[in-house]
Amino acid sequence: MVSMKNYVVVAALCLCCFGLLAQNNIEFKASNFKEDKEAFKTAVEHIKKGDEFRDAGNEAIYSILNPKKNFKQALQNYLLAQEFNPKNAELNFKIGNCYLYTNNKHKALEFLQRAVQLDAEVDPFIDFYLGMAYQLEMDWNQAIKYYKNFQASSRSKQIESLGRMLSKRISECKYGITIAADKKRVWVDNVEEVNSSLDDFSPCVSMDGSMLMFTSNRDNGKPSADGFEWDQDIYVSYLEDGKFTGPKNMGPEINTEGNETTGMLSYDGTKLLLFKEEDGQYDIYESRLKGSKWVTMVSFSPQINTKDNQTFCSFNANEKKLYYINDRKKGEGNYGYDIYFSQVMDKKTRKYEFPNSAGQKVNTKFNEGSVYMHPKGDLMFFSSEGHNSIGGYDIFVSKRKQGQWSEPENLGWPINTPYDDHFFALTASEKYAYIASNRKGGKGGMDLYKITFWGPEKFHQIDTEDYLLASIANPITDVRIEKSVEVNRKSLTVFKGKTIDAITKEPVEAKIEISDNSTGRVIQTFSTNSATGKFLLSLNSGKNYGIAVKAKDYLFHSENFDIPKNSEYNLIDKEIELKNIAVGSKIALRNVFFDVGKSTLRPESSAELDRLVKLMKDVSSLKVELSGHTDNRGSESLNKKLSEDRAKAVVAYLKGKGIAEGRLVAVGYGSEYPIASNKTSEGRQENRRTEFKIQAN
Asked: What phi and psi, each to the nearest 5 degrees, are found at residue 278?
């Protein structure tokens, strides 16, 4: 009699044998598919086509070029063959290999593991690709094990470049162990409302964070030249109630029959840098916002757009330098993509000097993938496969010190992952940034992600906005181990608003001049939108700025912003009412300065008063009153005397510039006509002013 124990053993052995049989490698031989010869023939044809694309992809890798398109095309063929026979080790290996070089890298491990289960010696490179797949999972030690297994193999020793690559991969994993233990104080959230199942990348964000532009190859009705996907177009979305609106295609002025890709949205939001493909050549273009429409893009000069490929690009703070990615063969690494910059010669014609490399501190022997210049001018954010990456492209920052770029710093995890992390774009508040990544967990391909910087640890203080953000993010179990990411300690002041007619309230197109009051020099000029009157500009800390707003047939309007060196981020939203040149119209001269208790004009008043001189000369019939005003502190008689003396000082300046005395009247009103409450320091500052009023025209 057979015992129950023996039955269990026999059953177990049968199951094991069945499992072994289930893992049998089914080769693509006609003898294995006698019942389905036509389907077998079709599958073999797909494999042959896939092999051609895969070989081209491997050639691109060795040439330090982007192999993604080749591997995607190989995959499309291999997956069709795999539907026919999912139990072929070599085919599963090839599929896993291809996924590693696409934007769906996370799918590779499943197929590579299946290939090994079917045939442990499926390919001499299996350990190398398993190392890559485990690296993507941040299973650093397992990845190192497979890399070292391959390093010891005869195949790796036959190819010198593989030895260097293996050393780099192992270094990436070792640095990954370090960087994963130093989690940064950030949230990384998928911007689900704008992402698609295809590639969404290269985000550009307005300084106030209200507008997001990006590139996508989602279905736009325009198949790509190879027929395997859709052309790349540029889309725009707007922030409303904390969410972005559904993306809109930017239309034929921007998007043509070919591929267009976002480069940078200028700091004032009126210029879009992009690059487009034509006959396999990538060149940089610019489009400008005129009213409510973006005008047809214009190419940069031949100094920029050469026979090489020019791609992702960014202006520096004053738009006098253009930084961009170029595959010029004499770069720092002698191959691949490097960062170059070129100095502007003529902004109107987009004529630039011959480009220079950003230098060996920035460029590596691997690819640099994108570049973003911070509006303060001393920071460069860029993506690179080199430096101390933890795999794929990582985002780095370099600081400009004494004319040189510093050693780049990895922004850390979870901003960077072993996947491709690209295209850093920062808002002016420096609290938010946007990147693109093909990391695991996205909606498909490259996705856009929002980075929220926490800043220094504050365990007992959290404002309402931070609380709301915390309530929608994944809970953090131990914030004490997480380090802050220092983007920059100097913060921007963003001045936004619109210019309107003081009577009709209709938008007015105006020119805005920003002057450095310490020198009187105009450092930037902007135009407000012709359709809406809107404007957006940024001011670095550490300067006293004069802002002059001018429009034809209107009095100029002035603002003053004295921004301390270590000031925090400020957002000033102001509606500027422009007044017609008519009797009774008056303006405050915000950039006329006196020392406390004195009536001697300070030198930094010259720029403002020279604007007034020009107005008086342009409109020769004007007769005006210059009036001085004070707050209500102190003796009213002394205030009237001081305000009158200050008005007389302004009149004397104008007379010295050739304005006839008969056109000028000086009056001191003391504190008689306040325009704000004298109960606050801000109100008193508003009341201390010099005004200009038209008496005759």
From this structure: -145, 115
